[in-house]
Amino acid sequence: MGYFNDTAKALRTTMVNAFREPVTQEFPLVIRPRAERFRASFALPDDEHGEVACIGCLACERICPSRVIKMKSGGKKDSPVTGKKRAYIDEFVLDLSACIGCELCVQVCNSDAIVMVRQPEVPAFAREDLVLDMEKLRANAKLKTASWGTGTRLQEMQEPPKAEKPAVAKASPATETAPAPAPAKETV
Amino acid sequence: MESIPFGLAALVTLFSALRVVRSPNLVHAALWLGLALLGTAALFAVLGASFLAGVQVLLYIGGVMTLTLVGIMITRRHDGLNVPAESIGHVRAGVVSVALFAVLAWAISATPGLDAAPLGPDATTQDIGHALVGTHVLAFEVVSMLLLAAMLGAIVIARRKDPAPHAVTHLHVPATAVREAAE
Amino acid sequence: MNELVHGALYGTLIATAILSTIAMGIWFERKFAGRMQQRLGPTIVGPAGLLQPFADIIKLLQKEDIVPRDADRGLFDLAPILAVVCSLGVAAVIPFSPSIIASDLDVGVLWVLGIGGLMVIPTFAAGWGSNNKFALLGAMRAIAQSVSYGVPLVLAVLVPVVLSGSLSISGIVAWQAQHHWFAVWPIVPGLPAFVIFFLAMLAESNRIPFDIPEAESELVAGITTEYTGAKFTLFYMAEYVHTLVGSALGAALFFGGWDGPFAPGLHWMVLKTLTLFVLIYWVRWSLLRFRADQLMRLCWTWLTPIGVALLLVSAAWVTFGGTN
Fold it and tell me: Under 8 Å CB-to-CB from C168, ≥6 apart: which residues?
């Protein structure tokens, strides 16, 4: 008998649903607002002098878990803009097809030279289109909005608290012997 | 005019009947058998016996054919698609077929009243029904008893024979228990 | 000869009508299923996605025709054609109005059951000819199912035959037009017989909840696993034809076919057929699939005994003069 009841229930549910307003949003025609921290592709922004900010320190290439970043340092040269000596980069390739979007490369960058951008990724018709070379990455920096996170900001955010923490700990003498070791371990 | 469809149906029937016996692949033979039976049904239909044609399709193709196919699928061991149909003893089979043909031909020619006019389209299904449960009720009942007996026989043959006290013969001792006892 | 021309003409007409209805039926099913799941269904091709079936068909026909290397080529090619022929063949004896009928056979019910039973052959040919384990398993399940459900189907169809005393479908419809629809009165053999007919028909056309032969989760796609392109389209079409013709048959046998007030017979027949068609899709998108053993238990321990009882009841109804 339970089977008949369940059958009737299933039939009623589907029929009621059939006359409800569909919840579908037709994606390319209707785009729902994206979250503030939404980010997808990458960009290589310029520094304040209008040169590419990357100094080729290889930090991002080393930390990348899926090894999608390949770069070639260009050595130290005199900057044509400021006249000072600084490091340059010859080649920078990021393969989006294998990128897992962990943003670790952004976090380790001390010169804020790689950032993520807030525009959604564009589907590509060929695998080669997903490989971002320097040209594309620099174009991204000009065309798309960068997200909030840059290397220095993220590092600052994740730094262990310094001055205030012992002051708080003094209020409760029981924890004085172990002055909050846990956050210290978290630093990269 | 009527002889054209009749001839066509007869040709199809004969051809597929030949393929049934000549086909080296059992599955193909079974499917050709289906076409032969369908051709027979068409012959019945051309001759105005539509009820017979319907029953032919329903029982022989829907029933016998299907059972044959299921039988082939379930019982045959097959690697790939080739299900060979071995035919042995061509000479003996030929002798038996010729003898059977002779007997049937004699029986048909000896049957009285064959040249009487066909019943024609007036013989409706109702007439057949009345005849079956009226004039020929005894034969009808005998046939149904025969079918019942056949069905019971099939069930008796197919039933698995249980070994009489069936727990004792397969005394199952777990391997771990044996090992523990040994230690 | 006149009859031959009439049959050919009306047969072509009815077949064309059925196939066009199916094109729209595919659109309707996708839309309806979408709404049941609070989706939109097809929207892009044509207004409200109306041209979607044509896009589907063009897509399917464009596809490469792949034949497995070790397939039994003859059977493999023959199966889809036979499937369409068998499912369309049933429509030959169904009256869509007092005059629109391809062939008013005296033994229409036998024709329907016989041709319906022939569906086993394309199923087997496809399953065997593909030389694929999923196809073969699907074929075995489909054959077991259609042989089993053939029994309650025949029993259910026999109820209107006994009640009206006619083996011709147009005769059964005419009888209902004169007296009453069988699904309404006598309600005891009529309505349950219709329910059994409906379930058996769902099983014969492999529709959910009886789609064990092509259960995607276990058998890939059953007998159609190896089929692509046009041949797959034919199988796909045969399934829809089977469903639509089954609905028409149900409407004719139990709901008085073309009988109805205020409107020409054809309108009523189409209305009833489409109602049953919608009912099938409603059931399809609402229920879950049976397990194979549940399927067989339902058939042999419920539908078949009930069918026999209904047949006896209808015989008693006729014998004791309940008709008039």
Answer: C93, C104, C105, C106, C107, C108, C109
A contact test, residue of C38, C198, C301, C302 with most A CBs within 10 A: C38
Mutant choice from C124, C132, C158, C223 vs B, greatest count of B C-beta within 10 A = C124
Apex CA C163: angle with CA C160 and CA C168, to 5°?
55
A154: number of Cβ within 10 Å: 19
The DSSP symbol for A42 reads E
Do residues B2 and B71 share a domain? yes
- Chain B residue with minimum CA distance to C122: B31
- What average pLDDT score do residues B42-66 get? 82
Q: Which residues contact A19 (CB under 8 A, 6 or more apart)?
A: C35
Which of B69, B82, B126 best tests the C interface by mutation, with the highest count of C CBs <10 A? B69
Chains that touch B (3 or more CB pairs under 8 A): C
How many residues can be counted in chain A? 188
> What is the number of structural domains in chain B?
2
Fold for the domain defined by A42-157: Alpha-Beta Plaits (3.30.70)
> Span C140-157, mean pLDDT?
87
Range of the domain at B153: 122-161
Contacting subunits of C (3+ beta carbon pairs below 8 A): A, B
To which residue do tokens 């056979």 refer?
C105
Of B88, B107, B132, the residue that ends a domain is: B88
Which residue in chain B is spatially nearest to C128 when comparing CA positions? B81
How far does the CA of residue B54 sit from the closest CA of chain C (Å)? 5
pLDDT at residue B145 is higher than 90:
yes
Q: Which of C37, C43, C287 sits opposite A17 (nearest CB)?
A: C37
Alpha-carbon Rg for chain B, nearest whole angstrom, is 25
Q: How far is C288 from chain A (nearest CA, A)?
A: 9
Residue ranges covered by each domain of chain A: 42-157
Q: Could you give the count of Cα atoms lying within 13 Å of A175 in the half-sphere of its Cβ?
A: 12
Residue C320 has pLDDT above 90, yes or no: no
Can you give the pLDDT at residue A185? 44
pLDDT in tens, C69-83: 888 888 888 899 999
ipTM value for the complex: 0.78
Q: Please give the full DSSP string across C42-77, using - where no structure is assigned.
A: --SSSGGGTTHHHHHHHHHHHS-----TTS-HHHHH
State the helix-helix crossing angle for C133-164 and C187-204, rounded to 10 degrees. Answer: 160
> Averaged over B147-164, what is the pLDDT?
82
Instruction: Give the model's pLDDT for residue C197.
Output: 93
Is residue C287 less than 8 Å (CB to CB) from chain A?
yes
CA distance B54 to C120: 16
Q: Tens-digit pLDDT profile for chain A (188 aa)?
A: 677 888 889 889 888 988 888 888 888 788 888 888 888 888 888 888 888 888 888 888 999 999 999 988 888 888 887 778 888 888 899 988 888 988 899 999 888 889 898 887 777 888 888 888 888 888 888 888 888 888 888 888 888 887 665 555 544 444 444 444 444 444 44
Q: Which of C46, C43, C79, C89 is nearest to C234 (CA)?
A: C79
